[in-house]
Amino acid sequence: MVDQDFSLFLSAQNLLSFLKSSILLVEMFLRRKHAQKDDPEQRDSKVSELRAAIGPLSGRSSKYCTDACLRRYLEARNWNVDKAKKMLEETLKWRSTYKPEEIRWHEVAHEGETGKASRANFHDLQGRTVLIMRPGMQNSTSAEGNIRHLVYLLENAIMNLAEGQEQMSWLIDFTGFSLNTSVPIKTARDSIYILQGHYPERLAVAFLYNPPKIFEAFYKATRYFLDSKTVEKVKFVYPKNKDSVELMKTYFDVENLPSEFGGTGTLKYDHEEFSRLMAQDDVKTAKFWGVDEKHHHIANGNGHSVAEVAPQPALVAQQAS
């Protein structure tokens, strides 16, 4: 009986030693994996590997695929070259058909008349471009219009990033938000698909300011389409909440931050003034991408010009899935 008990004791000890060894091996593997990802030489090697994998590029695809761009795709796929390559190739295919760099403000200006989404005239404390969104001012039921407007603002925000910056911040004010002003789930889903699939690692942080209770159900329905990294970047903040106020101070200068978001600044959207700024930016965008403005527009029946027809994001999403 003593021998049997001793044998069981040794077996338990062996099992415990095995478990400890296994845990140590796993920890060593994770540390090594983390160290490889954080090692500059390893990252540069991965970038070179990805560039070789996607092969020769030309035109706008070549201009798009900077080293910083490749790093973002690698980061989005945990530095797995094969997965990053697939993701990047899907983006290049989407950009070649949807042509986001060719969207011009006058084509989407009607979507922005109420100021439901715009680029702020200030930056966060890291010098990042800030997009302000006010879903309570939704003025359109057009899925395509809403998505093209969003894509235009994303491209514009990227064009206005300071040198060395790759990400932007979002401020989302839910004042006036209701079921009547919310976009359909499908539109939200298609927007998320484009944001995650074609603008990886562009979002630094998104502040959801004073969301109503009804939004919680809406968020729960859409967050399952978000990856875990994106979910971590979403911050819920509330007025007259000490923790929220302190959190906002770590990201923004309160003198610049509009009072709607707990700061002392003033948020006043002037559609005409914003349109003038966007028209100036459109010139810079065309020059950057080498777009011939005389040929990339076609006239519609009302005498205005619109972008050449491109597949709707929903269709592109279906094709890529």
TrEMBL record:
InterPro entries: CRAL-TRIO_dom, CRAL-TRIO_dom_sf, CRAL/TRIO_N_dom, CRAL/TRIO_N_dom_sf, PI_Transfer_CRAL-TRIO. Pfam families: CRAL_TRIO, CRAL_TRIO_N. Residues 124-269 form the CRAL-TRIO domain. PROSITE patterns: CRAL_TRIO. Gene3D superfamilies: CRAL-TRIO lipid binding domain (3.40.525.10). PANTHER family: CRAL-TRIO DOMAIN-CONTAINING PROTEIN C23B6.04C, GH16843P. This is CRAL-TRIO domain-containing protein.
